[in-house]
Amino acid sequence: MLKLKLYGILLSGLFALSIASVSAQQPTQEKTVVLYDPLFWKDDLKLSTDQCKKIKDINFEFFQRINSLTQEDRGRVPAKAAEFLSDRSEKIWSTFQPRQKKKWKKIWSIES
Known about the structure:
- The chain has five helices and no strands.
- It has helices spanning 2-24, 42-45, 49-67, 77-95, 98-111.
- The longest helix is centred in the N-terminal third of the chain and has 23 residues, at 2-24.
């Protein structure tokens, strides 16, 4: 039950932090944040089997790190979650080929 509450708080915090971090970025900054799982768009992005596996591994690592937070970490959950999310985003972004990065940006410019 405690884990479920912690996940609820964590997901709410992640969402708020992701919105804040994206909106806080300056227009001249070119950093792209990958908040959502690109595997949902694997056909549009033309992800290879290796890329899909790598993204699954990155997602698994992210959730393992979240799951490893203990009761003592409770006060730092939002900061740690933002750190983990940023790390996940960078790893996934580095998995994309240049054309896939362009496509990802295009998908999110249409969705916004």
